[in-house]
Amino acid sequence: MPYQTLLSPGRIGKLDIRNRMVVTAMGANLSEAGGHWGERILAYHEEQARGGAGLIISGACGVMYPIGQVQEWQLAISTDEHIPGLKRVVDAVHSHGACFAVQLHQGGLNSVDDTVGGRPQWCPSVPEPSYGDFADGLLMSELEVLASIGMPTYKVMDKEDIDALVQAFAAGARRAQAAGCDAVEVHGGHGYVPSSFLSPKTNQRSDEYGGSLENRARLLLEIVRAVRAELGADFPVIVKIDSREVGKEGGISLEDATVTAQWLQQAGADAITVSAYHEFGQGKLHSASNIPHEPNTNLPAAAAIRKVLSIPVIASGRVEPEHADSEISKGSFDFLAMGRKILADPHLPRKIAQGSIGEIRPCVYCYTCVSAIYTRERMRCAVNAECGFEYQRVARTTTASKKRVAVVGGGPGGMEAARRLASDGHQVVLFERSGRLGGTLRFASLAYAANERLLDWLCLQVEAHDIEVRLKTPATPDLVKALQPDAVVVATGALRSLPSIPGCELPHVFSGDDMRDLVLGSGTERLKTKTSAFTRLATRVGSSTGLSENLDFVRKATHTWMPLGTNIVIIGGELVGIELAEFLCERGRKVTVIDDAPRFGAGLTLVRRLRILAELREHGVGLYPGSKDIRIEPGQVGFTDNTGAVLTVSADQVIVARGATGDSSQAEALRAAGLRVHEVGDGTGVGYIEGAMRDAMAAADAIGAD
User: Is 365 an annotated catalytic residue?
Assistant: First the structure.
């Protein structure tokens, strides 16, 4: 049986844990006023426990709250008043067989809400300014949020402050123990106070807390010893540390982390959680350390630290369960901590235990979750619409009488609505005009491979449920009405017409839909004037043989051949245009992106946007936001850039990737036929994957409650 090691019981100190799967600490921003533990955080963690996790670690919990606060709705454990709410959460988690730990925290140099509240950030020394391209990747609305926060002030900690902090950690640990928690995790990483002392980059002190590694580690070691003394010998203490600081010259090194981990073990730590941090000012690095884009990024560091310890190591960072199972069996680490994967499917551990791997809803690494926190919003997930809203669904009911429902449109919104409705016992007929399911998600999966995980899962879900699928079937009002449905869900997507740009009618100009049809082998007759006979033949062959159905094959094949010239101009700097630019430049095209939008990347979540824009610049892609007077001419595109300079760029092909608008025409036609219609997805306004999944949940719930 697979996953035997991952499913085997583990132990931290004297705590027995039912498996090696840990819900890592994530700042969910789900507290109530005053940092209190309420229904939101209770339902959120109870769902994770119900899903089979072995150990759940809370998000950052302020020991000096509101001092050191990093989120508007951050949890707190700074007074005894926080104990009753925490106890309710612990009891709920225990009722499902999972263990629960509180992460003890003081935000220091990352305490955004200290700045908002007019409080200084606690730190070892006044930090140097952080330089980089971070702000360049923000949209205007995000810049407004950043501006509203203001400029931080600093409190360089003296010995009295240090002693107060140490005692605050110990007191927080005592409260966690009193609430029935099974363990605590001391957060010693991610630029927070203990980490800022550990880092030679941010610690410029000359006293016993600065200089040598021994001195820089002193604060964290004092905290751990005080926590151990407060809790007694048998209560598990976990410590999270940075294995390195990515892109921060002169920061924490793996050598530093390895030595520090040994000292922590001697000080009484029962386990070490290995993470990493980064230079904040560099946008791309926000997906290169603790929430990495590249798989297994932190595992070499975890293995190196594990070699010098006799206590368990908890590893994380985009690690697939099958890889973790193998590495744990080798002794590289002892527990797999998952964050994004658990947000996408909190029942991942249970499904692994049941052998239902195909049932696991996949994370697509879009960074919706962490980007929401960056913009001071509560936690949510693009593929799991229930994440962060579990408390609203506890009392969800469906009608005793099951309904007959027609779903029009086989894109992500339609498939998700059909899945939810069928799961609730309704009879579902799914209409799709084309010959395959997926809609725009299929092309989105070609441009960004992680999306294919969601496409495959939705297709499997449709197959697994009792859903009647009618492909190549336009859902006319007469056809739908003949079914006598109790309700109709319309998920037909957006209307993508070419905007009125001079020269759009030229034969070398493609819309986003043209590109999708061209690459995926459909609609070639419509593209006769824009493509060669050979191209049309090649795409027809791909379609007829099924090769264009295999997105991995298409991705690989397009590195060798594409029906496009060398110089490509994309007009449109939102999600579609930016992902197209990434796709094309990776295939050797010289790409230029032009748009009148003042900032590029709308529709992309902040953290993913920071990464992709940085990578486009690294690839030499020309980015021209805020352009005016855009005009397409034979062989080139002319425009006026945001400095007022009149420019032209060569263009073998021009792709117009803007102009998408909600299209309610089919919904209106069905309503006119007397049908009860619910609209979901881009038809109501372009909301991409997250909008489609959230609308689908709302529609299914409304139909069930009707």
Answer: no
Domain residues for the domain of 222 are 4-392
Q: What is the pLDDT of residues 17-71, one digit of tens each?
A: 999 999 999 999 999 999 999 999 999 999 999 999 999 999 999 999 999 999 9
Do 476 and 544 lie in a common domain? no
Q: Which two tokens stand for residue 409?
A: 């449109």
Same domain, 447 and 528: no
| Domain co-membership, 185 together with 273 | yes
DSSP annotation string for 347-361: THHHHHHTT-GGGSP
Residues 229 and 301 in one domain: yes
457 and 336 part of one domain: no
Residue tagged active-site, from 192, 209, 277, 448: 192
- The answer for residues whose C-beta is within 8 angstroms of residue 26's C-beta and 6 or more apart is 59, 339, 343, 369, 379
Same domain flag for 424 and 356: no
- Structural domain tally of the chain? 3
Confidence of residue 401 (pLDDT cuts 50, 70, 90): confident
Q: How far is CA 438 from CA 226, 457, 459, 492, in A?
A: 55, 11, 8, 11
Q: Which residue has the higher pLDDT, 659 or 30?
A: 30
Tell me the percentage of the chain whose pLDDT exceeds 70.
93
Nearest to 517 by CA among 548, 484, 476: 548
Confidence band of 537 (pLDDT split at 50, 70, 90): very low
63 and 46 in one domain?
Answer: yes
Please give the single-letter amino acid code of residue 413.
G
Is 651 in the same domain as 675?
A: no
pTM: 0.94
| b/e burial code for range 673-695 (CB count within 10 A of at least 16 → b) | eebebbbbbbbbebbbbbbbbbb
Nearest CA-CA partner of 657 in 570, 563, 539, 536: 570
Alpha carbons 354 and 348: distance in angstroms, whole number: 10
Q: What angle do CA 595, 601, 607 make, to 5 degrees?
A: 160
Residue 53 lies in a domain: yes
Identify whether 503 is part of a domain.
Answer: no
